[in-house]
Amino acid sequence: MFIYIILALTIFIIDRITKIAALTWWMEHARYITPFLSCEVVLNRGISWGMLHSTNDIVFVVVSLIITVITAMLCWFAYYNYKRGNSILAEVCIITGSVSNLIDRVIYGGVIDFIILSYGNLSWPVFNVADMMIVFGVGLLAMRFEK
Known about the structure:
Blueprint: H1 2-25, E1 31-32, E2 37-44, H2 57-83, H3 89-108, E3 111-119, E4 122-123, H4 129-146
Helix pairs in contact: 1-3, 2-3, 3-4
């Protein structure tokens, strides 16, 4: 269990520090680091990739509540798997990323996204470290259930 706590704290701290750095240094203007990587702060009031983004507060609260319920259900699933002696690496990544993004929703009224990957005219939707961990965890879960 100790290793999962350390992992969760590491993910959480890295995500929070990078979001604070983004708000401090990249709030005003985009910063181009390489031709493929840049940083620009975006407030995402929806879910991944800006889906369900809305300026309507009721929609925002409903989406936030749904995310909270799903995160709580995943906590129960992780606890159940841990008690059965299974790895919960995937669940820890998803839960930690989700909790950090939920904190943004409460503090800032949306999730702080700032990492932009692009190639020529193609661009991946803006994301953050928590989003990376959520995607990584979902990928691990998918591989687990594929067996």
